[in-house]
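Homework help thread (please don't just give me the answer)

Our assignment gives two proteins as sequence + C-alpha cell strings and asks us to describe the second one. The first is just a warm-up. Here they are:
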Amino acid sequence: MPRLKSGPKSSLEQSALSIPRISFSRLSFTSIEQCLTGGFPAGLRGPSGSDADQRKDPDVRKRLSGPALRTFFRIMEEWELTVSEQCGLLGWIAPSTCHKYKGGNIGTLSYDLLTRISLVIGIYKALHILYPEDLLANRWVKLPNTHPLFSGRSALSVMIDAGIDGLYKVRRLLDSRRGGWN
C-alpha cells in the first residue's frame, strides 16, 4: 500500500487532498484528522490564534468538506456499511443527502458533521494500529463486544444509537488501548 510522505505540508488543502487510499496504521496522521480536531497548521491560525475560531469558519469548513467526506466514504467501503448505517454515523442525515455527498455534491459541511467524520477517522486509525490485520480491523465495528461499554452489542450499534457521544466513547476507548491521541 502507498504511504504518505512525512514532513510539513505547505497548506491545509495540500495536506488534506494528498491522502491516498491507505491503511492509517502506517501513517503519521497530520492532515484531515488534525484539522478536523483542531490541530491546524500554524499558518491557518487567525488573528486570535485560536483553533476553535478557525474550525467554525465557513471557509475552513468548506475546504475540509470534500476531503473529509471522500475519506469517510472510503472507510465506509472498507467497513462494508449500508447507506442507513452511514447516515446513522453522520447524525441520521437523509439517505438522499448521503447519495448526494457520494456523488460529489458536497458544499460546506456543518461543524457537527465534520466532528463526526473526524471521530470515525480516528476510530479507523486506532483500529488499524491495534489490529494490523486489515480484515479484523475493518470487521471489528460490527462484531459483538463484551466490554462494559458495549454490553454484548457491536461498536457500530453504540456509535449509531448514542450519536456523537457514542462516537466519542468508542474513540476514547480505542485511543486508550493504543496509548494516546497521537
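The one we have to describe:
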Amino acid sequence: MSSMIDFQTLILFVPIALALNLTPGADMLFCLGQGAKSGPRAGVAASLGIAMGSFIHALASGLGLAALISANPIAFEAIRWAGVGYLLYLAVKSFTSPIGSLKPEAVDRSESWRAWKDGVWVCLLNPKVAIFMLALVPQFVDPERGSILMQFLILGTILNIGGTVINALIGAFAGGIGGFLAQNKTAARVLQYLTGFVFFGLAAKLAFDSRG
C-alpha cells in the first residue's frame, strides 16, 4: 500500500499533519471535556471515537462524497446544524447530569462506550472535517500512483494517528483530576458547568463558522 505514496510526499505531509494535530480545535476540546468529566478512560475513548469519525470522513472524501458536500450548500448546512444540535444536547446533559456521575468509580465500560460514540458523532457531524480532508489530502494524492481511494485512506490514517495520540494524552491528563473531584462536590459542579460551556462553545463555533 505505502508504495502508492512516494517518500518525498510523506516527508512533506507528516510535518504538516503533525502541526495541524497540535493546533487546538474542537476535537481536542471535546476530549479534554470528556476526560475531565468522566475520567482518563473516557477521555481516551473519546479520542478513539474522534479517530473513527475522522477515518470515515477520509473514506467519504476518497469516494467523492466530501466533494458533494462542498458543492451543495444545502447538504453542508443540514450536516452543520445537525452537529450544532448534537453539541447542544451534550451541553444540556453536562448541565443536568448528577454530580455523582463525575466520580471515578462511576466510570465503567458503558461510560467509555458513550464517550467513544459521542466522539464519533461529534466528528461526523462537523462538515468542516470533510471539507478539510477535501482541501488538504488531494494536494498529496497522485492519480498516476494507483488507487485514489487507497491514497486517501493512507494519508488520512497518518493524519489520524497523530491526532489520536495527542487527543488521548489530553483526555487522559484531564481525567487525572477525577480523584480530587470525587472529594470536592463544589469543584465537581463547577467543572461540570465548565464542561457544559465547552460543548456549548463548540456548538456556537460550528454554528457561526463560515464555509470559507
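TA reply:
I won't write it for you, but here's a hint about the kind of observation we're looking for: Residues 148-175 form the longest helix (28 residues).
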